[in-house]
Amino acid sequence: xxxxxNTELCQGHNRCYALAPELFDVDDYGTAVVIGDGTVAPxxxxxxxxxxxxxxxxxxxxxxxxx
Amino acid sequence: xxxxxxxxxxxxxxxVDPMSxxxxxxxxxxxxxxxxxxxYNRRAHEIWHDLREGGCPVARSDRYGGMWAPxxxxxxxxxxxxxxxxxxxxxxxxxxxxxxxxPVGPAPPITSDPPFHQIARRLLLPPFSPKRxxxxxxxxxxLCRGLLADMGxxxxxxxxxxxxxxxxxxxxxxxxxxMLGFPTTDDEYFRECVHAFLERVNEPVDxxxxxxxxxxxxxxxxxxxxxxxxxxxxxxxxxxAEIDGNKLSHAHVRGSMVxxxxxxxxxxxSAIGSxxxxxxxxxxxxxxxxxxPELMPFAVEEFLRAYAPxxxxxxxxxxxxxxxxxxKADDWVLLPFPAANRDPAFFxxxxxxVIDRAENRHAAFGLGIHRCLGSNLARxxxxxxxxxxxxxxxxFSLDGETRWSVGQIRGPRELPVRIDAVA
Lengths: 67, 423
Ligand code: HEM
Ligand code: SF4
Hints:
The complex is a heterodimer. Chain A is 22% helix and 21% strand. Chain A has helices at 15-19, 45-54, and strands at residues 2-5, 24-26, 32-34, 60-63. Chain B has helices at residues 3-10, 38-42, 44-53, 73-81, 116-124, 130-134, 137-150, 163-168, 170-180, 187-198, 205-210, 215-228, 234-240, 250-281, 283-291, 296-306, 337-340, 375-392; strands at 58-61, 67-70, 86-87, 160-162, 242-243, 246-247, 312-316, 320-322, 325-327, 332-335, 395-398, 403-404, 412-414, 416-421. Chain B has a single domain, classed as CATH 1.10.630.10. The N and C termini of chain B lie far apart (45 Å). Chain B has 18 helices and 14 strands. Bound molecules: protoporphyrin IX containing FE (HEM) and iron/sulfur cluster.
C-alpha cells in the first residue's frame, strides 16, 4: 500500500499528521507531505485508511499494491 | 467602532436600511431566515433538520438586503470552493456592505479573494503551523489550571460554576493577547470588541457606531508601542513582514490584527463551552472520556463536528442562478458549516454524538482556501481545556438555564454546571 497527498487540494487541516505521524509530515505552511516515498508498512495500513477517512478536502489517496 | 466597522462606515451603501429598527422575530425559517434571531442558535439543530426534511436545501430572507442559506454539505462546499461567483469581502452578515478595495478587504486574509488571498495567508501560516503551536501547550495548560484553581473549594453536589463565564471565555482571549504581545489585563476590553462586532449585527449601523469600543484606536497604540519596542510576538512579526520586498500597509497590519483577535476568541470560547455543555448533559460520554483518555483525539473532532461554532458568509459577485435560486449581486450567502456537519446525506448517524467516530471529515474549520488559519491553536485549546476540566471535575451536570450566543458564532454564553465530583 502507498499513500499520496494532492498538494493542490490539501488546505492544511492537519488531520493526517495528527492521526498518522508515521506516514505524514507537515511543512512550515501546514501543507501535508508523505514521509519517504509513501510506502505504508502492513501494520500502518489501518492508520493510512483512518487518515484518508478524516481529510475534509479529499486530498489523500491510497494505492493498493498490484498483486 | 472597530476597524472593520470603520471600513463599513466609510463605504456604506446607502440603499440598505441603516436607519430602521432591529428586525423582529422569525416565523418562517425557510423564507425569512435570520441567524441573529436569538431563537436560531437555541434551536439550530432542529431548524436545519426541519428545513432539510421539509425539502428546503437553501433557505432565504429579505433581511440584511437579501440573504441565502444553503443547508447541505454539498451546497455549502460548492459555495466555499467557488471564489468566482462568491466573494469573501464580507464574511459577517450585517445591514451594510463593505466596499473596501478588493481584493484585500478590511481584514486580510479572511476578507481577501484570490490571488491576493494566498499572499496574505502564506504570510500568517508559519506562526500557526502545527509544530509552532505545539510549543504553546504548557502555557495553555497552566492557564486552564489557574482558572480552575480560582474557582476555589467546591462542595460536590452543591457547588455551581459558570463554565462559560468563569472558564471557557478566558482561555482563547488570554492566549491570543499573549501571542500578539498585548497586556492580558485588557481581556475584558477584547471581549467587548468581539461582542460589538459579532453579536450586534442586526442593530442599525449608526447605533453600532455610536457606542462601539474603538478597537482601531487601541490597535494603533499597540502598533506604535511595538514599533518603539520590537519583540518576539505576532505584532512585531506583522510589522516586519514583507510582500515582494515591501512592508505591509498600515491598513493590512491593523486588519490582520483585528482578524486574529476577532477570529480566535468567540469561536474557541464557543467550542470549549459547547463541549462542556455536551458532557454536562450526557453523563455516559463524560464517563467514557474520563475512563478512556485515548478517546480524546476523536472526541475533540466529534465536539467540533456536532457543535461547530462558526458560520461564515460570502457576498454574491454578480447575479447568478444557484441551483434554481435567483441570487442577486450583493446578496449575502451564509455558509453554515455547522449545518453541513449534521447533514445526513454526508455523515452516518449525523444527529448523534458518537464519541469515537472514526470517519469524520467535518467542516468546522471551513472548506477550501480559507481553512481556519488558527485551527491548530483552536484544537490545542479545546483539547487541553477539556482535559483539565474533567481531570478536576470528573462529574458535573447542567444546573439551570444555558444562554446561547446570538449570530454567526454559536456557543454557550452562560453555562451554569453543578459540580458532582471533585478530584
Ligand atoms: C474552534 C475554534 C475555531 C473555529 C471553529 C474556526 C472556524 C473558522 C472557519 C470556519 C473559517 C473559514 C472562514 C471562511 O471560509 O470564510 C476560519 C478562518 C479563519 N480563522 Fe478560525 N476558527 C476557530 C479558531 C480560530 C483561532 C484560535 C484563530 C487564530 C487565532 C483563528 C483564525 C482564523 C483566521 C485568520 C481565518 C482566516 C483564514 C483565511 O481566510 O485564509 N480561528 N475559522
Ligand atoms: S488532512 Fe488533508 S487537508 Fe489536512 S493536511 Fe492532511 S492532506 Fe492536507
